[in-house]
Design brief:
The complex is a heterodimer.
Chain A (H helix, E strand, L loop, with lengths): L1 H8 L10 E2 L6 E4 L1 H20 L2 H25 L2 E8 L2 E2 L3 E10 L4 E8 L5 E5 L5 E8 L4 E4 L3 E5 L6 E7 L4 E5 L13 H12 L5 E7 L11 H5 L5 E6 L5 E5 L8 H17 L3 E6 L2 E6 L2 H13 L6
Helix pairs in contact in A: 2-3, 6-7
Chain B lengths: L2 H17 L8 H20 L6 H18 L6 H14 L7 H17 L7 H22 L5 H25 L23 E2 L3 H6 L4 E7 L10 E7 L1 E2 L4 E2 L12 E12 L6 E2 L1 E2 L9 E3 L5 E3 L7 E12 L5 H6 L9 H10 L6 H14 L3 E2 L10 H9 L1 E2 L1 H14 L4 E8 L2 E3 L4 E5 L3 E9 L3 E5 L1 H5 L1 H5 L2 H9 L7 H28 L4 H10 L9 H24 L9 H15 L10 H11 L4 H16 L6 H12 L11 H4 L1
Parallel strand pairs in B: 12-13
Antiparallel strand pairs in B: 1-5, 2-6, 2-16, 3-8, 3-14, 4-5, 6-11, 7-10, 9-10, 14-17, 15-16, 17-18
Helix pairs in contact in B: 1-5, 1-6, 2-4, 3-4, 4-5, 5-6, 6-7, 7-19, 10-13, 11-13, 12-13, 20-23, 21-22, 22-23
The chains are: A alpha+beta, B alpha+beta.
């Protein structure tokens, strides 16, 4: 039912330029299953009241009927005028959950229990305060490497009585870079074996990483790096960052990874980029047709992983 | 509070509020059942007791249904249905893990609220229903908005209710009503109450203990005096030695009494499941809903199972027409071999008396002067009930006096019969009407007099005149000493309570007169007042069309205005800042898009040092208006004034003296 409706009212179309305002022509409304049940009960009661000529019965049926109609307008208004100002997503590794962060705002009145759903995955229910910028984090699972489009965002509400559901569909032009899933293995570079060995040794010895400090937690940070101590003290959620000083310059080379499949090679390279970054090495990446000169730092890590993510994909 | 608790407790509240008015009608075990289960549920949150599992819940369901079957073996009626709802409502809160369960349970609460209207349509129930719907709606909002506070939900529910009421009123008046019903009344919950067609000993005493309202009578003019407030309902003609019975077949007739001093009143009769209607003695003609019978009673076609309103005109001074011989004979008949002493006494009293009136006077005198006592707890009487009453117990109430008097009159050859009904009624000081309760039940006698026809004689009035003028309680006090509510502070409280009760009753009656009476006929009248007459289309069809159009118009307009996204009001600060920048731009000092006010100010000051003071003043005000948390009230006005006055073209005199000179 809803599928057909969605298709009828939302034929495949171009992206909606942000900011999107939920105005009348965007917001749809229909009774929910409970709404239909409620109307069924009302109809039965109406027949009973007519039969018994019971005025109190009439009064109650009309009261409940009027309440449901009024609630319809409340439901509709709960969604109307909400704006999506921007959307962003931090890169994740394949197999993790991408989090699209929507910045939304409602000018007139507080909005209660508004649901956000990306491509029928995991819904999020949030209130939107009046005249405040709210960040709504909507998860979407990232299975494969590449560019994950946010796809169709359904924003809906059943507030206040659950008898009607108002919804709107937005196609935000947003994407999340999904890095290849890291695959652990030996550290192979195009430089001499010496470097490789030392890198191997470093990579396989845990605990050599130097604790560099804490940064504020952001959705998508690995769970293992969360600073539980600060969290348990109620000081907020932080992520531990590690760095390793020193290290030489290495080149991570696609062609040196033997005859395994493309995806596996990319996963291996992904793992190596992560490790190289963690050891604070100066590293470069060589893929067929692409070469990234050795560098250090967060920016290099992202450049390399993104190159791996989009390697061979159309979006590149 | 954790998540399930936040929804279960409000749902519990909705169920309790919904079930509350049904408690008196539910079997005790169901009330205990609900109380126990709900109590356990609430305490289980507090003390972390285990919640019953699926198996136990099923067992409890089976136990509950078995209990219902055992309780309502005899008949499956409204109460059984209500019991089933209550048993379900008691168990349902234990399984509310999903949204679906919660929604269904709230609908169950609505359903119970609806059922309460079959109890009665009084103002109290109507108001309670509104509150109950409000609470249930708030709970519905609660479960659909788990993030909010229940207080907010209650406010929202009140708002939704207030918005829904105008539409409800419109629908109530204009939704087409039909005459009669589709399927007949499947079952009726109304128990028989009031008089039956058999007046057995002790029958009236049972009624007298009942404080329930029998009917209300609203008068158009002044109320008749208390001694004339005899409400005629049923006539008992056959006496079997023990009980008096109404004749099984009475003709319907066109013969009307003659009389003077007509009094018109509207009676709102509580359903009693008999056919007779009550009217002030003597009804002049039958109301349109009823037939007129030869014993001067008014009866409906079918038992009265719904509250009924009718208008009836009565003559307080009347003369009945001729009576047929069969009826007169029936009113002389007495069983043989009963009450020999009473017959003997009657014969002695009536000795040498001439016409019937003289005999009546003598026998009534006997009751007045011979020291009878009025009490509601008389001793039991034997087989010769009249003999026992007159010669040994000498204590009784209307039934005993009427029975003895009627027997004696018949024994001396005067046709006499007993009339059952009510006498008196409580005058409501807030409105022009009387409330007649079952406690006002009364029987009296009418005798046949060739000149006046059937004539009312009330032996009770001879024994206890207070019963007629002041009511039963006063009459009992006169004989038994003061009752418990007659003195001191308790008396004050009781009189205050009486006032409150009467005020409320007046309000309810006004409401009932309007609300319960609204039906097909009244709707037709209303529609024709609105100028809708049946033409090509029936008036109600036209009304329906108007209703649809009006509803759509109201909802549409409301939706239009309510769903408009308000356009942003132009901001005065922004507007005047733009004007200020425009003035500067005309003077060749355009502000780059990305430049903030302070940087811009510096740039202006650099190019035009002469403007520095003026610009910095305006900028200072602008920055305060924009970024200060709460700028003082005059700031904006000053800003506007400064911007208006600002003119970059005007240069101070001292800087260009040459030109001016």
């Amino acid at each position: 039912m809803t599928g057909l409706c969605d298709w009828l009212i939302d034929p495949p179309r171009a992206f909606d330029p942000l900011p999107v305002v939920f105005h009348r022509r965007r917001v749809f409304i229909l009774p929910t299953m409970y709404g239909y049940l409620f109307f069924g009960i009302l109809l039965a009661m109406l027949l009973g009241s007519i039969n018994y000529n019971n005025n109190l019965g009439f009064l109650l049926v009309f009261l409940l009927g009027s309440i449901s109609l009024v609630s319809m307008i409340h439901t509709y208004r709960n969604l109307l005028g909400v704006r999506i100002l921007s959307v962003s997503a931090r890169p994740v590794f394949a197999g993790e959950t991408a989090v699209f962060r929507f910045l939304v705002r409602a000018e007139s009145g507080r909005r209660q229990a508004v649901g956000f759903l990306l491509e029928k995955e995991r819904p999020v229910l949030e209130d939107i305060g009046e005249k405040t910028d709210e960040t709504i984090s909507v998860p979407r699972s990232a299975q494969d490497r590449g560019i994950l489009r946010a796809g169709r965002l359904v924003v809906w509400t059943r507030y206040p009585l659950g008898l009607f559901r108002a919804w709107t569909i937005v196609r935000p032009d947003a994407a999340c870079v999904v890095y290849p899933r890291p695959l652990a293995g030996p550290f192979q570079t195009s430089d001499g074996g010496q470097s490789q060995e030392s890198a191997d040794a470093a990579a396989e010895t845990p605990g050599v990483d130097d604790f560099a400090g804490l940064k504020r937690y952001q959705p998508g940070d690995p769970l293992g790096r969360i600073a539980w101590k600060t969290l348990s003290r109620g000081m907020g959620t932080f992520t531990k960052e590690f760095t390793k000083a020193g290290g030489g310059s290495v080149m991570l080379d696609y062609d040196r990874l033997g005859d395994t499949g493309t995806e596996q090679k990319l996963s291996r390279l992904s793992d190596m980029v992560v490790k190289a970054h963690r050891m604070n090495l100066e590293y470069g990446l060589r893929l067929p047709g692409i070469t990234l000169a050795p560098e250090r730092g967060e920016r290099q890590r992202h450049a390399c992983l993104k190159a791996l993510a989009v390697f061979g994909k159309k979006e590149a | 509070m954790n998540e399930p608790q936040k929804t279960i407790l409000p749902i519990l509240l909705a169920l309790i509020v919904a079930i509350f008015p049904h408690i008196p009608r539910l079997p005790l075990w169901i009330v205990v059942w609900c109380g126990t289960l709900w109590g356990y549920l609430v305490l289980s949150f507090r003390f972390r007791w285990p919640r019953p599992g699926k198996t136990l819940r099923r067992v409890l369901t089976v136990v509950g249904i078995l209990g219902l079957l055992l309780t309502f073996t005899r008949r499956l009626d409204q109460n059984a249905y209500m019991g089933l709802l209550a048993v379900m409502a008691a168990l349902k809160p234990f399984e509310m893990d999903t949204h679906r369960d919660r929604m269904i349970t709230v609908f169950l609460a609505y359903f119970i609220v609806i059922t309460s209207l079959f109890l009665s349509e009084t103002l109290a129930i109507t108001l309670y229903m509104l509150i109950s719907v409000g609470v249930t709606t708030a709970v519905l909002a609660r479960i659909n908005n788990p993030l909010g506070h229940f207080r907010v939900d209650l406010g929202l529910s009140a708002r939704v209710l207030a918005q829904a009421i105008p539409l409800m009123v419109l629908l109530f008046f204009l939704f087409p009503r039909i005459e009669g019903s589709f399927f007949g009344l499947w079952f009726s919950h109304v128990a028989r109450s009031g008089f039956s067609d058999r007046l057995s000993p002790g029958g009236v005493a049972l009624l007298v203990e009942n404080d329930a309202v029998a009917f209300r009578a609203t008068f158009e003019g002044r109320l008749p005096p208390p001694e004339l407030r005899y409400w005629r309902g049923i006539v008992f003609e056959n006496f079997d030695g023990r009980a008096w019975e109404a004749r099984s077949h009475v003709r319907e007739t066109g013969q009307m009494p003659e009389g003077e001093n007509p009094v018109t009143c509207t009676i709102s009769l509580e359903p009693h499941r008999y056919r007779w209607l009550f009217a002030l003695e003597m009804p002049a003609k039958a109301p349109p809903q009823a037939g007129w019978f030869a014993d001067y009673t008014v009866r409906t076609q079918r038992p009265v199972v719904r509250k009924m309103r009718y208008e009836v005109t009565s003559f307080t001074t009347y003369r009945t027409g001729p009576e047929d011989g069969e009826t007169l004979n029936a009113c002389l008949r007495l069983p043989d071999n009963v009450n020999p002493k009473a017959r003997e006494l009657a014969a002695r009293l009536a000795e040498n008396a001439g016409p019937a009136r003289e005999k009546t006077r003598r026998i009534l005198d006997f009751f007045r002067t011979d020291g009878f006592a009025y009490t509601l707890e008389p001793p039991r009487l034997g087989r010769h009930s009249v003999d026992d009453f007159i010669f040994s117990s000498r204590r009784g109430y209307c039934e005993h006096f009427a029975s003895a008097f009627c027997f004696m009159m018949r024994s001396v050859g005067v046709p006499a019969r007993i009339v059952g009904g009510y006498q008196g009624g409580e005058v409501n000081p807030f409105a022009n009407y009387l409330v007649v309760r079952q406690a006002d039940a009364h029987v009296w006698v009418e005798i046949w007099d060739a000149e006046t026809g059937w004539t009312r004689m009330d032996p009770t009035a001879m024994v206890a005149p207070d019963r007629i003028t002041k009511g039963m309680r006063a009459a009992l006090n006169a004989f038994d000493g003061p009752g418990m509510f007659s003195r001191g502070a308790l008396g004050l409280v009781s009189s205050w309570l009486k006032n409150v009760r009467q005020g409320w009753d007046a309000l309810s009656t006004r409401w009932a007169a309007f609300f319960e009476g609204y039906s097909y006929d009244m709707q037709q009248a209303l529609l024709s007042k609105l100028g809708l007459r049946s033409g090509v289309l029936a008036a109600s069809v036209k009304a329906m069309l108007i209703l649809v159009v009006l509803s759509f118009a109201i909802i549409g307009l409301y939706a239009w205005f309510a769903t408009r996204i308000p356009r942003k009001k132009p901001d005065a600060v922004k507007k005047y800042y733009a004007r200020f920048c425009e003035k500067l731009a005309r003077a060749g000092l355009a502000r780059p898009q990305d430049q903030g006010p302070l940087d811009f100010m510096k740039a202006v000051a650099k190019n035009r040092p002469d403007l520095e003071t003026a610009v910095s003043e305006v900028m200072d005000l602008y920055v305060r208006l924009r970024y200060q948390d709460r700028p003082s009230a005059g700031t904006l006005a000053e800003f506007i004034r400064k911007v208006r006055a600002f003119d970059p073209a005007v240069k101070p005199l001292r800087q260009k003296p040459g030109i001016k000179a």
